[in-house]
């Protein structure tokens, strides 16, 4: 891959993570965990992952953990291989409506940089009932150069006149895949 195709791959990964969050089922207001709460849980999870401390986060009974589409136990997979991170490249995607948070971050396995995507689904009492990791290894020099810091535009709040309804955002997320099918 080279420059433009590298970024298209990263952009598709980020959009896919956001789309997964958008299709989630809303939960009742009594179980509220706002944006900052979700971001704090995601950051705690990443710290636990890098420090191989799965017991440092609160797990729901019967929690399901997947890594690169395969089931793992708490403490296996990235808990064993991730050694540091995140770097300055961290992008949070909190969704209080569905009680989910996504995170995209550059981390390390030994001295090797890896791009890690995480999705957490919370149960009541903010316990993690689902955790998914996607770890992209063998990053090209161009990808690594483009993943040093998050572009400022991605961190900006959407201005009120451009903030759409949740239904509209779901429609936009679905249309991305229609576009891929039509190319």
What sequence of helices (H) and strands (E) makes up the elements? Answer: HHEEHEEEEHHH
**CATH class, anyone?**
Alpha Beta
Distance from N terminus to C terminus (CA atoms, Å) equals 19 Å
Strand content: 25-35%
Total separate domains: 1
Runs with pLDDT <50, length 5+? 9-30
Specify the helix fraction band: 25-40%
> How can the largest sheet be summarized?
6 strands, mixed
Overall body shape: globular
* Strands ordered across the widest β-sheet: 2-1-6-5-4-3
Q: List how many beta strands DSSP finds.
A: 6
What is the typical, i.e. mean, pLDDT? 82
Q: Briefly note the CATH topology name.
A: Nuclear Transport Factor 2, Chain: A
The CATH architecture term is Roll
Note the total helix count: 6
- Helix-strand category: alpha+beta
What is the rounded Rg?
Answer: 16 Å
């Amino acid at each position: 891959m080279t420059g433009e195709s590298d970024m298209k791959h990263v952009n598709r990964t980020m959009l896919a993570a956001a789309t997964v969050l958008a299709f989630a089922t809303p939960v009742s207001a009594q179980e509220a965990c706002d944006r900052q709460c979700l971001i704090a849980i995601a950051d705690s999870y990443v710290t636990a992952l890098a420090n191989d401390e799965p017991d440092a986060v609160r797990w729901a009974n019967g929690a399901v953990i997947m890594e690169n589409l395969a089931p793992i136990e708490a403490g296996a997979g990235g808990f064993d291989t991730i050694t540091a991170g995140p770097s300055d490249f961290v992008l949070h995607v909190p969704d209080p409506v569905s009680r989910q948070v996504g995170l995209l971050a550059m981390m390390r396995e030994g001295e090797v940089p890896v791009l890690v995507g995480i999705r957490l689904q919370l149960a009541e009492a903010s316990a993690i009932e689902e955790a998914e990791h996607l770890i992209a290894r063998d990053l090209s020099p161009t990808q690594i150069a483009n993943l040093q810091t998050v572009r400022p535009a991605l961190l900006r709040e959407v201005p009120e006149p451009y903030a759409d309804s949740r239904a509209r955002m779901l429609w936009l997320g679905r249309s991305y895949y229609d576009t891929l099918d039509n190319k």
